[in-house]
């Protein structure tokens, strides 16, 4: 019997199933919700772990999530699907996820699929904070999942940059150089300042606290593989959507588009990187298709992603048939320069791997310009912001340099195995392989529409 005969249709498998999602307010979380509601209309309740913010209730936060262009096509045709979303107050930083007893009981009795997407993705977070969210938060999700009576799979969303010391990141478990139990205990008991002082030593080969704590979290999931059905999904740098629900959806400036925004507005002129390096990337809609397809595959046909029952199921995902170097992106920026309506300075971008040149360019051309603009802002009664912005850009560029100066090969065989095992009727909605024509569409929406070319960078930079 062929693999496609064993695989149920994804919408049918998720029909009536209850799903628990962490990180629903983030970039990938929003796209996951939209895809589930649009392509799996018969899905049961989708529970969203959401932290109340000061002065903003969780209900208001949910309304804010839905009130973005991403959901407009879906909600304009089927506004009733929003009723399937139920907010569960909680926090990944807290023990037992900060859940109330009655909410935990509902999740334990009803949930079949868990998507753990929540994480802090900042590279410069203090180690204590990163451990609490990325590592201990994962432990709490695993412990909750162990209690679920109907659990079919827990999917942990990691990153392809967890073990950059490997010649090739294979689709398997790697042991972190630190013990996750010890590190959680240290974060819970040690003084934050003492932990900060020894962070560099603890990092070892890891470039930052983000990759370290995600690697520790992978080890937590691996240790649970005999207790519950689990899978690790590792996307590369997640960029704007290719097709769904429309081309170009992006709500952040992570990855290459932060450079684009700064360049188009004339704010960013010097960037430290190697032009011949190509970042591995995954369009967000393809990543979400992969997340859902891999979770259903692990639940219904585990042999596809886990040939050896003793080993952890791990799937890497990235666009692996084309290299888009920073030199290519520099040309893209040049081609879209005419869309830079009302830039604060003529758009020009210098990409260099010479650190002294980058440093001098920043000090001699960007900082004086920022200082002059801050003086003007003070004179007209506004708060100065340019020098603070340039300082953040400089340190962010420094933090990213490990990734912009090196390439990290990634194995992606299981992505194709999942695609082959997929039910034929799911090809259109959940296909996770791509071709060159698909990649050509990954220009962010704001870079294609003159109005957005002004609006979105302004929202970030001013």
From TrEMBL:
| Enzyme category, top tier | oxidoreductase
Where does it live in the cell? Membrane
- Single GO cellular component term: membrane
Reaction(s) catalysed (UniProt annotation): a long-chain fatty acyl-CoA + 2 NADPH + 2 H(+) = a long-chain primary fatty alcohol + 2 NADP(+) + CoA
What's a BP term from Gene Ontology annotated to this protein? long-chain fatty-acyl-CoA metabolic process
* Family matches, as InterPro entries: FAR, FAR_C, FAR_NAD-bd, NAD(P)-bd_dom_sf
Q: Which GO terms describe its molecular function?
A: alcohol-forming long-chain fatty acyl-CoA reductase activity; alcohol-forming very long-chain fatty acyl-CoA reductase activity
Name the domain of life. Answer: Eukaryota
Q: Where does the record place the Fatty acyl-CoA reductase C-terminal domain?
A: 370-436
The protein's role, per its UniProt record: Catalyzes the reduction of fatty acyl-CoA to fatty alcohols.
What name is this protein filed under? Fatty acyl-CoA reductase
């Amino acid at each position: 019997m062929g693999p496609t005969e064993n695989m149920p249709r994804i919408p049918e498998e998720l029909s009536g199933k209850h799903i628990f999602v962490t990180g629903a307010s983030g970039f990938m979380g929003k796209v996951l919700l939209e895809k589930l509601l649009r392509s799996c209309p018969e899905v049961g309740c989708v529970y969203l772990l959401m932290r109340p913010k000061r002065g903003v209730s969780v209900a208001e936060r949910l309304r804010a999530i839905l009130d973005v262009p991403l959901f407009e096509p879906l909600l304009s045709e089927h506004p009733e699907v929003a009723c399937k979303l139920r907010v569960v107050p909680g926090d990944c930083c807290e023990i037992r996820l900060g859940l109330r007893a009655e909410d935990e009981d509902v999740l334990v009795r009803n949930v079949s699929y868990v998507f753990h997407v929540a994480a802090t993705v900042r590279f410069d977070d203090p180690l204590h904070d990163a451990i609490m969210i990325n590592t201990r938060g994962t432990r709490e999700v695993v412990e909750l999942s162990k209690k679920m009576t109907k659990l079919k799979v827990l999917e942990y969303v990691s990153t392809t940059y967890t073990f950059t010391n490997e010649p090739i990141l294979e689709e398997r478990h790697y042991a972190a150089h630190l013990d996750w139990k010890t590190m959680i205990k240290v974060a819970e008991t040690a003084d934050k300042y003492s932990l900060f002082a020894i962070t560099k030593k603890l990092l070892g080969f890891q470039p930052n606290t983000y990759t370290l704590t995600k690697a520790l979290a992978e080890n937590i999931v691996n240790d649970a593989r005999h207790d519950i059905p689990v899978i690790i999904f590792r996307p590369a740098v997640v960029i704007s959507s290719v097709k769904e629900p429309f081309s170009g959806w992006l709500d952040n400036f992570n990855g290459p588009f932060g450079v684009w925004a700064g360049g188009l507005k004339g704010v960013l002129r010097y960037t430290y990187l190697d032009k011949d390096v190509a970042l591995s990337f995954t369009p967000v809609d393809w990543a979400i298709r992969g997340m859902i397809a891999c979770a259903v595959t692990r639940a219904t046909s585990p042999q596809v992603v886990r040939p050896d029952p003793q080993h952890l199921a791990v799937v890497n995902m990235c666009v692996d048939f084309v290299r888009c170097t920073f030199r290519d992106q520099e040309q893209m920026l040049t081609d879209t320069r005419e869309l830079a309506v009302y830039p604060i300075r003529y758009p020009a971008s210098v990409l260099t791997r010479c650190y002294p040149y980058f440093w001098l360019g920043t000090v001699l051309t960007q900082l004086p310009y920022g200082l002059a603009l801050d003086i003007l802002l003070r004179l007209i009664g506004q708060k100065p912001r340019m020098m603070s912005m340039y300082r953040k850009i400089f340190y962010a560029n420094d933090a990213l340099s490990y990734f912009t100066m090196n390439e990290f090969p990634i194995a992606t065989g299981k992505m194709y195995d999942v695609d082959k095992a997929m039910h034929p009727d799911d090809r259109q909605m959940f296909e996770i392989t791509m071709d060159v024509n698909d990649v050509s569409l990954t220009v962010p929406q704001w870079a294609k529409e003159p109005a957005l070319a002004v609006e979105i960078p302004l929202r970030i930079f001013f």
